[in-house]
Amino acid sequence: MRDEMGLNDNVLIQYGRYLVNLAQGDMGTSYVNKRPVADEVFSRVPATFKLAAVAAVVSIVIAIPLGILAAIKQNTLFDHSSMVVSLIGISMPAFWLALMLMLLFSLKLGWLPAQGAKDGWKSYVLPSIAIGFMQMAAIARTTRSSMLETIRQDYIRTARSKGITEREVIFHHSFRNALIPTVTIVGVQLGGLLGGAVLTETVFAWPGLGRLVVQAVNGRDVPVVLGCIVVLSVGFSIVNLVVDLLYGFIDPRVRSMYQ
After folding, report:
1. Domain residue spans of the chain
2. How far is CA 42 from CA 7, 192, 209, 230, in A?
3. What is the pLDDT of residues 111-162, one digit of tens each?
4. How far apart are CA 244 and CA 251, in angstroms?
5. 30-254 is classed in which CATH architecture?
6. DSSP states of 217-258
C-alpha cells in the first residue's frame, strides 16, 4: 500500500509530485473515504468563509467605533473599561469562550442552538462571537492607539484652530489618517479568524474546514490535512493582498509611489 501511495519515495520526489498535481487541481485522494480531496475540502469552504465573514463584520463594526470613542474619551471610565475588556478579549482562548457561551446561552438558557448550522442566523451567533471576540479586542486597541497618535499631530491642532467642527476633525482628518495601522491589524486578524475556526468549529460541530482538519488529523488522513492547509493559506494570502490594495486607496502617498 505504501508503494501504491508513493510513500516510499524520497521526500523531495513526493513534494514535487504533490506540487505538480496541485497545479493541475488534483489534491489527491482521501485515505479514509477514498473521495477526491478537492471535493472534500471545497464542500466545506462555504461554511467556514461565511462564519469568518460574519465574525469579521461584527468585529469591525463594534471594534472601530469602540476604539475611536476610547481615544476621544481618553482617561475616562469608558476608556479604561473598554481597554480592560479588550485586554480580557486578547487573553481569552477562543475555545474556552466557545464552551462558556454554549454552556450559558444553549444549555442553561436555551436561547441559541448549541451545534450545527441548520438554524439559520441563530447558528452563527455563538461561533462568530467565539472566534471574533479576540479579533475585536485587538482591532479596538489598535484603533485607539492610532487615533491618539493622530489626534496629537500639529495638523489636527491647525484644523481645530480654523474653527472646523470636532466631528469633522475626528472623522475626516483624524480617522482617515489613523486607518493604516487599523487596516493592517484587521488583515492580520481576518487571517486569524480562519485559523481560530479550527477549534471553534469542533466545539460547535460546525461543518467547515476547521472541523474537517481535526477529523483528518484524528484519522491520519494526510492528503485532506494538506488540502485544508493549502486552501486556508490561499485565503490568508488573498486577505493580505486586499489589505495592500486598501493602503493605496486610503493613503494617496502610498498610491503615488506606484504611479
Report:
1. 30-254
2. 25, 20, 9, 11
3. 877 777 677 777 888 888 888 888 888 888 888 888 888 888 777 777 778 7
4. 11
5. Orthogonal Bundle (1.10)
6. HHTT-HHHHHHHHHHHHHHHHHHHHHHHHHHHHH-HHHHHTT
